[in-house]
Every structure is written in structure tokens, then in C-alpha cells.
Amino acid sequence: MSTYTSSNGTVAPSPALAAEGADTDAALVAGLVLPPGVQDHDDKTGKNLGTIGRPLDRRAPFYVGLTGGLGLGAAYLIGLAIEDISSVLVLIGLGLFIAIGLNPVLVFLVRRGLSRGLAVAVVTLSFALAVGAFVFAAVPPVSHELMNLATNYPRYKSELASGHGWAGSLVAKLHLTSYFKGNSKLDLSSMAGGVLGAGKLVLSLGVATVSVVVLTLYFLIALPGVKRLWLSLVPISRRQRVELLTEEVFDRVGGFMLGNLLTSVVAGAGTFVWLSVFGVPYALLLALFVALFDLIPMVGSTIAGAGVTAVSLTQGIPVAIATGVFYIVYRLLEDYLLNPRVMKHTVKVSPGLTIIATLIGGTLLGLVGALVAIPAAATIELLLQEVAFPRQNQR
Questions:
Q1: Which residues contact 374 (CB under 8 A, 6 or more apart)?
Q2: Distances from the Cα of 240 to the Cαs of 176, 215, 252, 382, in angstroms?
């Protein structure tokens, strides 16, 4: 080993030996970092390709503008994708919401010894039987009335054209007698277009309904797995508290479904009593119709009330007017008195917040927004009370 003595008397390796050792270390490091092909190529060619330059300055204007533009473009594409699948996302969210609302029923059945799959089958069968009973009760009177309409249509048409009765007087005041006398031709193309549009609407509603039912059944079966997946995304240090909050949210959504069902029962019972007093035909069927449509927020009771008012015309205009006023008053009482008080006990939301949440949800997302508005408001209120406010008090 070659050494030399420095001016201060210390002994050190010779410069040549030190340089050779440095080259050996550099080759060793290069062999560990670079791919074998690159190292071999550099050894064969013997070319010096220079040293690696400094990394790109992330604060440089070009780098900032490039990354910002790429991020903006990615956000725009993601927004377009979400907009394209927004209808699908709404159906998925609605199915999950209904499944969470029905989960307390499944929990009750599971605690009684049934498996979850069997509990889902019981709930599904109960729903199918309820729909089947409604259809079975509705088909005979509806078909009877349609047959009467087809049989008596010529007489009804002549009475309307001649101005007899209250309906004929109304037609005469609206100057529509020419259509019933056959002097005016109907635009068949516009009628065909209207029928086609109505058919498309009915078809789309049918597909959406079937999709929601299938998704609801899937979520009813897989809801425990979905909840475990959600909790697995939470850090283990917070998992227990998040699980408790999730269970509370599920209970409040179930309470909302129970409260909504209760208000629908009240609407159906009130309709049955009212129609029975005035002798309107098919009182029980119309009461079931009102109770079913009252489950739809905002417009359900209004649509049902309009239909019942039209049927009550068979008992005369005064009864129809009184029925219309009855549903207007009931709608106001349900929206601003009954529904807020029921939700206060089932969802634990104040009456004022119930009204505000329903208005905001209906404005943003229509029927779906009005349906999920109260549970969403309950969830936000829960998070504020259990998370946000305690943290603020600790500061």
C-alpha cells in the first residue's frame, strides 16, 4: 500500500490510491442504482455524458402553470364524468337511503332469530303483498269505470256539445263546444307526439323504479359489508367513535322512514273519513291512493288530493270544492305542524330545521332532495353536536 507523509506529519494514502478507491466506490454505487444495461453501455463506450443537473424548480412559473393547468383539466373532466352519470348516482344514493331506512326492520327481525337474507325476503314479500293488494283493489273499480265511460261516451259527448249539465255549461263558457260537435279537426300529429312523449316518460320511470328496487335489495343484503368497508377507511384510533356515529345516523334515517310512514297513515285515514262522510265512491281505494302518494315529499299529497277531488265531482261541484279545500288545509297542516312535530321525535330534528331542510333539498334536487333533506339535516346536526362544538369548546 502506497502512502506519503503530509506536511503536518500524518500518514495518508497516496492521491492515486485515493482516486482509485473513489472510482471503485462510484462504480459500486452506479451498479446498485443504474440498470445493468446502462452501466454496461457506459463501460463499453467510455463516453462521459455529463453530470445530472439540478431538479426542476417547483416554484418556477412554468412548472406552476403547467401543474395548475393539468389539475384544472383533470377537475373539468371529472366534473363532466360526474355530470354524465349523475342520474345513476342519484338512483344509487336513493337505493342506499331506502335500505338504510329499512335497516331497523331487518335488525328487529334478525334479533328475533332470522338470518339477514331471510329477513330481507320477509320485508320484500311484505312490500310485494302490499303492492299486490293495492293493485287487486284498484283494478276492478277502474276497469268498471272505464267500461262505463266507453259505453256512455256518446251520451256524454252529446251532453257536453249541447251544454247540458254543469260540465256542458263549463264547456260552453270555455268555447270548446266545436270540438265535441265534430266541427274542428284534431291535430293527429301533435297527439301522436304527445302519446309518444308520455310513453317515453312512463318507460323511463319504470326503468328507474326497477333499478331503485334492485339496488335497495342489494344494499339491504350487503349493508353490513358496506358499513365495514366504510369503517375500514377510518383510522383505527377513531374507528370506534365513527362506528357509533354511523349507527346513530342509521337510526335517524330509520326514524325518518317511520315518521314518514306515520304521516302517510294519517293522510289515508283522514281521506277515508272525509270521503265516507260525503258518500264519495271507492273511499277505501282512494284512501290507500292518498297514503301511498303521501310518501312522496312535497308533491305527493298534492297529486293525490287533485285526483280525489276529481273523483268527488261525481257527488257534485260543492263536494268537489270542499274536498279541494280539505286537501289544501291538510297540506298546510302536514307541512308546518304535523310533519315537523313527528320528525322532532323520530329524527330528533327541530320543527324549524325540518321546514328549512325540506325547502332547500327540494330546491336543489327536487323530489329526491326533499326526500333526503331531513335525514341529511339530522346528520349535519349530529356531527355539529358531537364533533364540531366539542372541539370549539376545547380551544
A1: 256, 343, 347, 349, 354, 357, 358, 361
A2: 70, 28, 19, 16
CA distance 324 to 330: 10
The span from the CA of 329 to the CA of 167, in Å, is 26
Q: 375 with 346: CB under 8 angstroms?
A: no
Say which amino acid occupies 317: I
Q: How far is it, in rounded angstroms, from Cα 137 to Cα 140?
A: 7
Region for 266 from its dihedrals, namely left if φ exceeds 0, alpha if ψ lies in -120 to 50, beta otherwise: alpha
Q: How far apart are CA 196 and CA 191, in angstroms?
A: 9
- Rounded-to-integer distance, Cα 326 and Cα 152, Å: 31
CA-CA-CA-CA torsion for 248, 253, 258, 262, nearest 10 degrees?
120
Which residue is associated with the grid cell 416554484?
Answer: 59
pLDDT digits (tens, 9 = 90+) for 287-331: 988 998 888 776 788 888 998 998 898 888 889 999 999 999 998
Angle, CA 174 vertex, CA 171 and CA 178 arms, to 5°: 65
